[in-house]
UniProtKB/TrEMBL annotation:
This is Cysteine-rich venom protein. Residues 49-176 are annotated as: Disordered. It comes from the Eukaryota. It comes from Mizuhopecten yessoensis. Residues 67-80, 136-148 have a biased composition (Low complexity).
Length: 605
C-alpha cells in the first residue's frame, strides 16, 4: 500500500498592522473542520509532496511573554510572537489625555499617553507589533522595545533542490516501560498557578514508551543547527540553538498525551520568553520528523506573505519550517512518546524559545550584491554559518548582541543573562487605578510598569497605594470602582484636588457618564465628582468663583465677594460713578461689572 503524507498546522497566529497592533483575532486551527476543506487540503498536500505515509505534522504561534495570541494570519507553527499581545498601553508624565479642548470638554482623541492603544505610546514604551515589523531588521527578539521596518525582499531566489533527508536508523523495538516510571511529579506550585498548564496534565494510559535519549538530544539539536546554517536565502543573524531541559520537560509531557495538535499553556516563567511548538505524528524516526518540518522550505518565499502565494491559510503549510529558522529562537527541547491503540502511534514534539513572530521574515537575509553572507552581523562569533555565543541566552526579554555575545536587559532585570529580577520600590501610579490586573495579560508593557500588581515582584509594600479596591459612590452620584487616591495624591489632580469648572459639580456639562467614557476625566478634570478623590479640606467649597487653596484650606475670592467661602459682599461700598452708563445686562457679560456696580447688579439687597 502506498505511503502518503498529510501535514496539519494548528496555529494561533499574530500579525501586525502598520499603524499599530491588530487586537481582533481568531483561533485558526485545522485539526477539525469542514470535511470538504479537509480533503481538499489532503489532495493538495499529496500533489505538493509526491509521497505518502500516514504521517502528520502540526505546529503553533504564541506571544513573547507566553500569552496566547488570538489574531488572524501568517504562521502555522505554535510559536510566540514578539508581539503576541494586543499592543502596548502607555502613559506619560501626567495622566493620559484623550480629552482637553480649551473648553475642557472630553474628546475621543488625545495624546498617546495612557489610553489603551494597540500601538506603543510616544512616551517610549515598547511597541508590540507582529509579523513584518516586530523586531529590528526582521530580527525577532522577544521583548524588544524598538520597531523598525524590515528590509525589502530580495529578488526571487532560484529554485532550490529538495533537501536530502538524512540517513536514519530503522525504528528500534523498545521494551515496554511501566506507567509508574513515566508519570513524574511535574506539576509544581509554579505551574499549578498557571491554569491548564501542560505539566499539570496526567499522562495518557496508552503510553508505553516515553522519553528522548542523550544521543537523540544531541542529534535533534545538531539537525536543527545544520538546517539553519544552510537556509536559503542565506541568513545573516541566526544563532546556534541550544538544548533546554525545561522546554524538553513540557514537550515530553505533551507527547505523553498522545494527541494530534498543540497544548494551550506551555509557558515557562524562568525562561521569560514565548514558547513555540512543532508536532509530528507517525514517522519512524526523529530524522524523518525534523526533515519534513524543514522540507516546507520548498513552498516558502522570503519576504512575502505566505497567504498571497499559498492561498487562504497558506501559512499552515510552511509554519514548521519558519519556526525552525526564526532568528529570535535560541533554545529547543523535545519529547517523544509511543502510544498503543492511538492514531499515529509515535508522537514527536519540539518546543522552542522564543516562538516565531514572522513568517515572511523569520530571519534577516543577505542582500544580493551587498557583500553580506551567512552570519555577517557577527563576524567575531561566526561558526558554521551561524552566530555562536556558546549557548548564551538572554532571558526575560533581554536582547542578544550576537557579535559581542552580550545581553541588553529590560528595566526589571540585570545580570549576564538578564536572570536577576530588580524590583522597583512601588508600581507606577496608574497601576490598579486605571490599569486593572486584567491588563497584565492583555498588554505587554503593563507587567514591566506594574510588576507588583502583576505578581512579578512579590513584596507587599510595592503597591502604589495601600488602599484596597473599593466600590464608592461620590456625593454627585458617580460610581467609582478601584483604588482611591489619597488626599496628598489628589492635590495633583483636577484643580488642586478639586473639580474644574467644566464638571457638573461646578455648573459645567461633564457628567458621571464621562468619568468612565474618557480616560482623563477622573484625574485631570473631575476627581471629586468621579469618586477618585475625597473633597479637599473636608469638603469646603469656595463660592462665587472663588478658588480653594488646598494647603491652607482658605478661599481666594473674586471681587466683589469676600468671606471664608466667598459668600458675602461688602454693600457699604457704593457703585462706581460710571455704572449708570452701563446696562444691567453687562452684569452677566463682563467680569468687572459686578465688582464695580454691586448695587446695580443686585448683589446687595
Amino acid at each position: 500500500m502506498g505511503r502518503w503524507t498529510l501535514l496539519f498546522a494548528a496555529a494561533v497566529v499574530f500579525t501586525s498592522v502598520t499603524s499599530g497592533q491588530n487586537t481582533a483575532g481568531q483561533n485558526t486551527r485545522m485539526v477539525t473542520g469542514d470535511v470538504n476543506q479537509f480533503w481538499r487540503f489532503v489532495l493538495d498536500s499529496m500533489r505538493n509532496r509526491g509521497q505518502s505515509s500516514g504521517r502528520t505534522s502540526f505546529s503553533v504561534v504564541y506571544d513573547p511573554s507566553g500569552r496566547r495570541t488570538v489574531t488572524t494570519s501568517s504562521s502555522s507553527s505554535d510559536t510566540g510572537s514578539g508581539s503576541g499581545i494586543p499592543g502596548n498601553i502607555g502613559f506619560g508624565t501626567g495622566f493620559p489625555r484623550n480629552t482637553g479642548s480649551s473648553a475642557g470638554f472630553p474628546r475621543n482623541t488625545g495624546s498617546s499617553t495612557g489610553f489603551p492603544r494597540n500601538t506603543g505610546s510616544s512616551a517610549g514604551f515598547p511597541r508590540d507589533t507582529g509579523s513584518g515589523s516586530g523586531f529590528p531588521g526582521s530580527s525577532a527578539s522577544t521583548g524588544s522595545s524598538t520597531n523598525t521596518e524590515n528590509p525589502p525582499p530580495p529578488p526571487p531566489a532560484p529554485a532550490f533542490p529538495k533537501p536530502a533527508m538524512p540517513k536514519s536508523n530503522p525504528i528500534v523495538k523498545r521494551p515496554t516501560i511501566p506507567m509508574d516510571s513515566i508519570i513524574e511529579n511535574t506539576c509544581t506550585n509554579e505551574y499549578k498557578a498557571l491554569e491548564g498548564h501542560t505539566l499539570c496534565m496526567r499522562d495518557d494510559s496508552r503510553v508505553r514508551v516515553s522519553g528522548v535519549s542523550e544521543a537523540d538530544k544531541k542529534m535533534i539539536t545538531d539537525l536543527h543547527n545544520d538546517y539553519r546554517s544552510k537556509v536559503e536565502p542565506p541568513a545573516t543573524d541566526l544563532v546556534t540553538l541550544k538544548w533546554d531541559e525545561r522546554l524538553a520537560s513540557v514537550a515530553q509531557k505533551w507527547a505523553n498525551q498522545c494527541k494530534a495538535g498543540h497544548d494551550k499553556m506551555r509557558k515557562i516563567p524562568s525562561i521569560g520568553m514565548s514558547v513555540g511548538q512543532n508536532v509530528a505524528g507517525g514517522y519512524n524516526t526523529w530524522e524523518e520528523s525534523v526533515f519534513h518540518w524543514y522540507d516546507e522550505i520548498r513552498m516558502w518565499k522570503y519576504g512575502v506573505d505566505p497567504d498571497s502565494y499559498l492561498g487562504h491559510l497558506g501559512w499552515k503549510k510552511i509554519g514548521h519550517f519558519t519556526q525552525m529558522v526564526q532568528n529570535a529562537t535560541f533554545l529547543v527541547g523535545c519529547g517523544y512518546a509511543e502510544c498503543r491503540r492511538s492514531r499515529y502511534t509515535r508522537y514527536y514534539v519540539c518546543d522552542y524559545a522564543a516562538g516565531q513572530s514572522n513568517l515572511a521574515y523569520p530571519y534577516t537575509a543577505a542582500r544580493p550584491g551587498s557583500g553580506e553572507g551567512r552570519c555577517s552581523v557577527c563576524p567575531n562569533t561566526c561558526n558554521k554559518g551561524q552566530c555562536d555565543c556558546k549557548g548564551l541566552v538572554c532571558l526575560n526579554g533581554g536582547k542578544l548582541d550576537p557579535n559581542s555575545c552580550t545581553c541588553t536587559c529590560t528595566k526589571l532585570y540585570e545580570g549576564k543573562t538578564c536572570e536577576q529580577l530588580v524590583c522597583p520600590a512601588k508600581d507606577k501610579w496608574i497601576c490598579r487605578r486605571d490599569w486593572p490586573e486584567s491588563y497584565c495579560d492583555a498588554y505587554t508593557n503593563v507587567p514591566e510598569e506594574c510588576p507588583h500588581m502583576c505578581g512579578i515582584c512579590k513584596s507587599v509594600t510595592g503597591s502604589t497605594s495601600s488602599s484596597p479596591e473599593v466600590t464608592y459612590v461620590s456625593s454627585s452620584g458617580c460610581q467609582y470602582q478601584g483604588v482611591r487616591s489619597t488626599l496628598d495624591e489628589c492635590k495633583a489632580y483636577g484643580r488642586g484636588g478639586d473639580d474644574i469648572h467644566a464638571c457638573a459639580t461646578k455648573g459645567g456639562n461633564i457628567t458621571c457618564t464621562d468619568c468612565d467614557k474618557y480616560y482623563n476625566v477622573k484625574r485631570d478634570m473631575c476627581p471629586v465628582m468621579c469618586g477618585l478623590c475625597d473633597p479637599q479640606c473636608n469638603g469646603k467649597e469656595c463660592r462665587n468663583g472663588g478658588t480653594l487653596d488646598t494647603v491652607t484650606c482658605s478661599c481666594s475670592c473674586q471681587p466683589p465677594y469676600e468671606g471664608d467661602m466667598c459668600e458675602t459682599v461688602d454693600c457699604a461700598i457704593p457703585d462706581m460713578p460710571h455704572c449708570p452708563y452701563w446696562s444691567v445686562g453687562h452684569c452677566r457679560q463682563y467680569r468687572n461689572v459686578p465688582s464695580d456696580c454691586r448695587h446695580m447688579c443686585e448683589l446687595c439687597r
